[in-house]
Amino acid sequence: MSKEKIRLIDDLITREETCVLATSDGIRPHCSLMYFFADHAAMKFYFFTPGSSTTCKNIREHPHVSLLIDRREKGVTLSIQGVHSPIKKRQTTEAITKLFLMKFPQMADLANQPDAMLIRVNGIEAALATGVEDVFSTKLKNS
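Now predict its structure.
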């Protein structure tokens, strides 16, 4: 049973293109619909946002976030708890940006803005819901 759930988690992470990224300013939550690119093996998730955005401001001050990836038409949701991990190497940023834009060329205008921010979130744990009472929780690899 859990192998099926793990496969479904992997499928959602690798096949879906958007998620809701929830951040907080310490008091109020903030949700943004985002395109995401995942390094599936390392359970790292990448997003682009303007540096002046509420999402970016929140994540700098409060690095713990939640992602929601779903297939609403099938009643399947995946909630991932994670923490922002700033990218320190320019080469890493350039390599991930290239991969991100290969998957989402429509994001090139945003990615090329001077204040564009590539956000990396390390996934820590996940909860997969395949029904109201069917929830499977697991720690993520490399967390």
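The beta strands are 18-24, 29-35, 37-39, 44-50, 64-71, 76-84, 116-129, 135-139.
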